[in-house]
Amino acid sequence: AVGGTMRAIAEANCRELKWVQPRTMKRNYELRSGEEVFGRLQWETTSGSLANAESADGRWTFKRTGFFNPQITVRAPGSDSNLAVFSPNWKGGGLLTFSDGTRLQWTSDGFWHSRWAFIRETGVRLVEFEPESSFLKTSAVAKVTQEGFSTPAFSVLIFLGWYLMVLRADDDAAGAAAVVVCVAT
Fold it and tell me: Mean per-residue pLDDT for 1-30?
């Protein structure tokens, strides 16, 4: 599957999907079901924030900009136009605003604010991430609701959510994985 054609994430048909880090020292991740690759998230450099996301559903770049008023832009590769902008808040969450005006919250809950989710302003959860970390490994379980799968940009949310989790993770982590599970609402 490496270098081959990827299938659309929805074609996983709720099979287990995992973000895996093929090489420990590189900030490159693959979204897999078994050996089949459904997407890739790769950083341009080891210390920068520019990352490229690629799947059968589309290709995007994510980049953190600004110091006093930081934002993360979501763009098509080679474009200067934002498809969406994530504006973090002081609690670590934030607001994702798409160019069509759609707004989603990135918020935490649970014990020690351990779970993270993209939710609609109405409170409906779309994609939820629950980290599972140890000294040498960072991982997270992601649950995509039926409402999440019916959202046109759900694949962007899977990639951006993992991008935000990796930014928060310790750079010295030896490996990473996230699991995507379908949950009926």
Answer: 73
